[in-house]
Amino acid sequence: MTGFSVRRATRPRLRLSGPLRLAARLAARDLRHRPGTGLLVLLALLTATTMMTLALVVNRSARSPWDETFAATAGPHVVATTFDADEATDRAMADLAAAPEVVARAGPYPLLSMPDGALEAHGRRIGVEVMARDGGAAEVDRPALVGGGWIRDGGAVVEESFATALRVVVGDRFTIAGRPFTVAGIAVTTSRQPTPFYSHGLVWTTRADAAALAPAAANRGAVLMLRLADPVGAPAFAAGHTTLQQLYLDDWQSTRLDALTDVLFALFGLIVGAVALALLAAASVAVAVAGRMASQTRRAALLKAVGATPRFIVTVMLAEYVTFALLAAGVGLLAGTYLAPVLAEPVPGVLGTAPVVLPSITTVALVLGAATILVGLSTLVPTVRAARASAVRSLANPARSPRRSRLAIAVSARLPVPLLLGLRLAARRPGRAMLAAAGLSVTVAAVVVALWMEAGIRGDTAQVSDALGEHAITYDKLRLVTYTFIAALVALALVNAVLVAWTTALDNARTSALARALGASPRQVTSGLTVASLLPALVAVTVGIPAGFAAYRAAAAAAGGASGSPTPAAAGLLALLPATLFVVAALTTIPSHRASRRPAIEALRTD
Amino acid sequence: MQDVVLALLAKGPSHGYELRRRLLAALGPMGSAFNAGQVYVTLGRLERAGLVESAEVGQAYRPDRRVYELTAAGHERVATWVAEVDWPKPAPAEFHLKLTAVAAAGLADPVAVADAQRRELLRRLRDVEQALLEAPDRSAAALLLEGAVLNLQAGIRWLELCAEHWTGWRQGDERRQGNDG
Amino acid sequence: MTGNPRQVLATRGLTKVYGSGPSMVRAVDGVDLDVQTGEVVSVMGPSGCGKSTLLYLLGGLERPTAGEVVLAGDRVDRLSETRWARLRRHAIGFVFQAFHLVDELTVVENVELPALLAGATPGKARRRAAELVDRVGLADRAGYLPAQLSGGQKQRVAVARALVNEPLVVLADEPTGNLDTAATTDVLRLFARLRSAGQTLVIVTHDSRVASTADRLMTMRDGAIVDHTRLERRTSTVDDLVSSAGLETGS
Questions:
Q1: What is the predicted pLDDT for the residue at A5?
Q2: Where are the domains of chain B?
Q3: CATH class of this structure's domain B1-84
Q4: C103 → closest Cβ in A402, A600, A604
Q5: Residues of A numbered 427-486 whose beta carbons fall under 8 angstroms of chain C's beta carbons: which are they?
Q6: I want to staple C108 with a disulfide (CB 3.0 to 4.6 A). Which of A241, B135, C97, C142 is the partner?
Q7: pTM for the complete prediction?
Q8: pLDDT range class, residue B31, cuts 50, 70, 90
Q9: pLDDT tens for each residue of A52-69
Q10: Beta carbons of A367 and A359 less than 8 angstroms apart
């Protein structure tokens, strides 16, 4: 028996513990060293993910109230309305009711268009439409009571959105054309658009009461409600049966769209806001990362010296950023879910408010994914560059060399000293300048969109208030959405501006110290640094305002024709230009001033 | 060697034995290179040169029993030696000896002596530099002058170190004197 | 202190102290010096002795803790940063050990910068810069970027830059600190030419080669001037010089 043992060759295993520990230690030290940037980036990401969550959650929950109401009230798929009933319209309605696609019908019911001011309630006079109904439940369109009881003689049921606008409750008294009524009940229906889109509200009465009111009516018409075998075919049905000019056929899809306009409008705002914030957050992250490039490159070089491969380094660095992103996404999801009910509109004229919806798997995945991709993309390029740079060269000379712009140098020579310095400083890092400009442009464009939306709201509100003599409360929540998103956007843009100014000052410490040693006064240097930050702002405003216009127009067109909403006050937009520049200048002066007051010799000493 | 012995005697007359002890103490690690015989041979030479005189005390012919003393000529010679800035070739050892002797004998401030020598070297360096600028490129003269520059630079650098070292010694001494006083 | 018209720069009891208590450092300790027009003064000393700090105090890049600095007859030690900046435009030129050239500007653009900062027209600044670039022997590299230059060439550009506004005095902080022997010779040659043109120079250095070219040499140790020599020119043959340096000539 052989007594020797063969020593099997063991493959050397890569010891990850060393580089991994070093990487973790460097990352922690870096974070402790500059907690400010980390916090700002987190804030930026947080705002973006919260907005994103809000948009997604509201999107899911907004439509359900109407859909639920539609189902609960056996809503009509097609509503045929005429304001002047005669033999022709009666015959047409009979034909419609007999159509093969129809599976259920209700009416025709008499519809009285009362003159303006016919209804008097709580001292206010307003126009109204009166629909006569039967006491029992109809086959189609069974208005759901949210309070009180159904019609009785002398007791009318008021449509819910109208009742809210009038501020009447069950039991209140009012008159129509002098005839006294009591509010027997308040109900919702999906057969028509809610107030305030109709300047005439809807009231249901018994046939007897309607007959008594008929002489005082301006027009006497009729309403027929149908349910089809195939609900999807309602628009086709309506199009196919339009024969009489005075007979209007509305399909439930367009009614639904109109009813949800508010919500969709708000949703549009949220989506625009979320996209803008996401872009801005990405820009902020990129700027922050660029500002830390020197330490990143050195970190990569150190890791390489310990034996880590470039792929490992990229993975580790990206992991750090992605952790940030996931953290932000998590908190954003929670915040968005919590805030969604606050912002959710009780959709007018339907049952209940939007339910508190927990984000679906899709939503969670979308938000997490978006945050990760956002951060990953904006940090990928610089991280890869840092990882691939030669270790030796990085350790010896960590800074990336600045760009030379012959144009900037030539032009600036003719300018006064602060502009000379500012232009040259900005031209050194064209990448950062463009990022700053991009970020601000997005903000400015979004603010323009918001201002336009606000003007649109005010316009509609003006129309409604003429009819009701007061602002419809419908729009308050919408305003809240708009203002929230403007505020978040502006806050983020300010964060971005400070980040840019800070990184600019840091990057140019040696150059500004040198300028002072060569004869530039501290004030000239401060101005120069501020100008360097202002130049992107100028570009931002120039590009952002028209971009905002274009964006709103495009979105309105996509939503189905520009509603002819009024343009926001020219004064407001013009004020945006100097306001932006002023704010940016004010913010960037602080880091610029501090940089120019630090003793020059600190940056110039070699020992 | 001769000058060092003279310098050590400048403090006051002493036995040959005592002198040897002083010399070894002053030399420190370099002392091992000197043996007793060298000291006595040097003393003999100095006597013949008239710089030193001796007197017998006790048992006559044992050299370590004689008392040695500087003559007037001897004192003159010491003073000249201290002020001398001629730069001999194997410089460091001898110059260090000079500074040590000067310090031990309290003849002068060793820092000042080092600085004086340094000044002289700087003057020479300046002259060499001047000549170098005027010399044609790549000539033999230029090459030799470059060599001179490097040598002088080395010397100056070492003299700076000496000055620093002896400044520290002086501060220590002052502190010691302060404590005693 | 009387106004001596030939006195460009002077200090009395100049002191700079950093920190306090047990960690206090006296970087410059009661220095008196004066520099006459056209003189080359060099301050020598080991690193950490305070000579660089002394230079920064002379140029207003540091504020003294105590003492006076007088430039062209006016007291300047308590001036504001802005006033100092204006002073530096026309009275003081700096040369740094690390050159501190702007990386993205060419040689001539670097040199003209102080002129532009002082408010000269672009044309005049460019002309003067071109003239100086020629004077330092870099006319054929006027359009090069600093990255394309050797150390000695970079320092020559820095010297040209220091001269563009015709300063009263040029302050040089270890100008040959980052240079090899050949480059040092180039810069010394340039300094010699400046001296013969009458430019006042104060050079701080630990290199004896550079220090020995001065008219007056001061040695600093622990913040104080401990030695002060006037170096006069003596003519000797090459042989004498070489042998006096300790080299055999074989003759």
A1: 44
A2: 1-84, 109-181
A3: mainly alpha
A4: A402
A5: 428
A6: C142
A7: 0.69
A8: low
A9: 887 787 777 777 778 888
A10: yes
